[in-house]
Amino acid sequence: MAKYPRGPFKNLSSEFFVDNEALCGSSRFNVPPCPNSSEHRSNRKKLLLSFLLLGITLLFGPTFMFVWIRYRGGKRAPQSAESTSTLTRERISYYEVLQATDALSESNLIGSASFGSVYKGVLKSGTDIAVKVFNLQLDAAFKSFDTECEVLRILRPRNLVKVITSCSNLDFKALVLEYMPNGSFEKYLYSHNYILDNMQRLSITIDVACALEYLHHGCSSPVIHSDLKPSNVLLDEDMVAHLSDFGISKLLGGDESELYTKTLASLGYIAPEYGQDGLVSTKCDVYSYGIMLLETFTRRKPSEFEEVLSLKQWVSYSLPDAVIDVADANLVPPTDNHVMKKLDCVASIMKVALDCCDASPARRTTRIHLLAC
């Protein structure tokens, strides 16, 4: 490379380039250096991203800003990679499981799953764990255990309950899971001692949307959870939601977008095509998510309604003018100075929920992704 530039500018001094702010080149002319091609591409990406974020903010301002603050601002510090990897590599034997749970004592029972029971335990290291023990008297429990192991093997803990290890022999099958100290979302939603406010409920449903976004679009093979409901959403010490219980989940392989199954999920949350024909797809999870959204902001279980009137119909008949008749009274007390704003917020969320649980899979909204991180 020549020491000095050549061509028509070789005899010009730096004075000729004063005030030409768009010019770049050799430092000899007192102009900024030209960016290399990789820097140029990076700047273009940043510019496009800025325009994209601006457009989304203008179109979906309140929801986007909440998600941005919630996930970028960071109200909690993530667990360090070292501590996570150490826990994941830990091998836990059958006898260690018995010791940790006091021989699966009734006093350590913290809940039930599709095909077994869940116990709290404490390892010798002092780490709290949850042990999901499968009831092997049920034939379906063997398949459920294998399914969970297969599915959880490919997942990463993005708003999912983390599996530490499995424990299996001829007479015993269990999964050792990360312990969620605040229990299930269902417990908090229907608690008489603790009322979740609007933002807490929205935060939890956004966490679940993030989990579904990852399962449907972030895995090497899309995963259909198949049993989405508040009791399968667990809360950690910071009230961050984690999706659990993959006992009847389905893995889509190759170019599959749907498949058939004879396994039924929880009544009230099942999409019509799933309940009637056994046809499952990611759209079934979107339907269940819509029902859970309605339940979250009405505080009414889908099982409470007669066959002639469903939770979905009850809400749809009340929108948009009578939303106060279906919203959880704890969210919109009459004495609240901001009751109209809160009602507008709840009405918007319920509209998204109804779009999610449309009877036709093709018409179900894809706006659930706007709630995801």
The major pleated sheet works out as: 5 strands, antiparallel
Say how many strands there are: 11
Assign the CATH superfamily of the largest domain.
Transferase(Phosphotransferase) domain 1
Shape: globular
**CATH architecture field of the largest domain:** Orthogonal Bundle
Class inferred from helices and paired strands:
alpha+beta
Radius of gyration: 27 Å
- Average pLDDT, to the nearest integer? 81
Q: How many angstroms separate the termini?
A: 49 Å
State the CATH topology of the largest domain. Answer: Transferase(Phosphotransferase), domain 1
Q: What is the succession of H and E elements? A: HHHHEEEHEEHHEEEEEHEHHH
How many discrete structural domains?
2
CATH class of the largest domain: Mainly Alpha
Index terms:
single chain, 373 residues, alpha+beta, Phosphorylase Kinase, domain 1, Transferase(Phosphotransferase), domain 1, 2 domains, two-stranded antiparallel ribbon, 13% strand, globular
